[in-house]
Amino acid sequence: MKTMTASLLAGAALMISGATANAAEVELWRLDCGTIDVRNLGVFSDTFEYSGEKRTLTDSCYLIRHDKDYMLWDAGLPAALIGTKADASAVFAPALTEDLPTQLARIGVKPEQIGRLGISHNHFDHVGQAASFPAATLMIGAADLAQFKANPLPFAVDPSFIKPWLDGTSKVDPILGDRDVFGDGSVVILSTPGHTPGETSLLVRLEKTGPVLLSGDVVHFEEQFANRGVPTFNFDRADSLASMERLTGIATSLKAVLIVQHDASDINKLPAFPNSAK
Ligand SMILES: [Zn+2]
Questions:
Q1: Which residues form the domain of 100?
Q2: Ligand 1 centroid, distance to 221 Cα (angstroms)
Q3: Could you tell me the pTM of the whole model?
Q4: Count of structural domains within the chain
Q5: How far is the CA of 16 from the centre of ligand 1 (A)?
Q6: Could you tell me what percent of the chain has a pLDDT over 90?
C-alpha cells in the first residue's frame, strides 16, 4: 500500500511538472543560412520607421533532434549564391558562405536523415536549399503551399526551390492551424499568418534551456514587437499585428527564449554551432 501511494504521488508530480518518465530527448542547433544586406530598410515598416536606413539581416536555419528523428526548420538562402559577388545596387543583396549539408556533416548528420522539413513561409530566403533534402516531408502552411502555384507569383516566391514536392516526387504535409509535430508537445508549429498567408513559427521545448520560440518572419528585428513594424510587402496587416501579439504572449506565459530569425543580435541566444541547446 505504502509503495502504491508513493508511486501515485510520483506520478502526480510528473503530471504537474509536465514531464513524463520516457520523455524524448530534444536538441536544437542554429545553422548559418547567410546574410541579406538591405540598402533601403524603409520597406520593413509601413509607418516609415526605417526610412533611409540600411541594415544587414542574418538568415538562420535550425536543426531539431527528437530522439532519433531530425527536423530542419527553414532551408535558408540558395546554395547557388556561394562564391558569387553581391549586387551592390540591389535593395536586397543576399550572400551565403556555406551550405546546409556541409554544416550538418560536421555533426555527423546526413541530408537523408532529415525526416521533416518545416518551413516558416514560402519566401526564397527560407526555402533556398530545400531541394538538398528530398527525403524529408515538407511541412508548410497550406496557404503558402498554394501560393507556389499562383499566377502571377507573389513577391519572393519561386516554385523551382521546392520542385520535388510540387511534382509529387517528395511528400508534402500542408499545415492548417497549429501542429504538434511529434505528438508529445515538444515541437509545435504555430499558426502566425500575416507576413504570408500561411506563415508559421516554431515552439521547441528543451529540458535544460526551457521553451524556445523561433519567429519565422512574424517580425524581422526584435524591436518590431514594440514598434509594431509591419513590412510594406506583408500579405495582411491586421494578421501581422495579431501574430506579433500571439508570439510575445506565448513568450511571456511560457517564459520562452524568443528568437527573431533575421535579427543578427538574436544569434547569441543559442550556442554557436556545432554546439547545441538541450
Ligand atoms: Zn525572411
A1: 25-269
A2: 11
A3: 0.91
A4: 1
A5: 38
A6: 88
Summarised one tens digit per residue, pLDDT across range 126-154 is 999 999 999 999 999 999 999 999 999 99
Distances (CA, A) of 69 to 98, 115, 116, 155, 168: 24, 7, 8, 33, 23
Residue 180 inside a domain? The answer is yes
How many angstroms separate the alpha carbon of residue 98 from the centre of ligand 1?
A: 18
- CATH number of the domain to which 226 belongs: 3.60.15.10
184 lies in some domain: yes
Give a yes or no: residue 4 inside a domain: no
How far, in Å, from the CA of 175 to the mean position of ligand 1?
A: 19
CA separation for the pair 240, 193 (Å, rounded): 6
- CA of 218 from ligand 1 middle (Å) equals 9
Q: What is the pLDDT of residues 38-65, one digit of tens each?
A: 999 999 999 999 999 999 999 999 999 9
Report how far ligand 1's centroid is from the alpha carbon of 177 (Å).
21
Residues shown for the chain: 278
Q: What is d(CA 231, CA 219) in angstroms, rounded to the nearest whole number?
A: 9
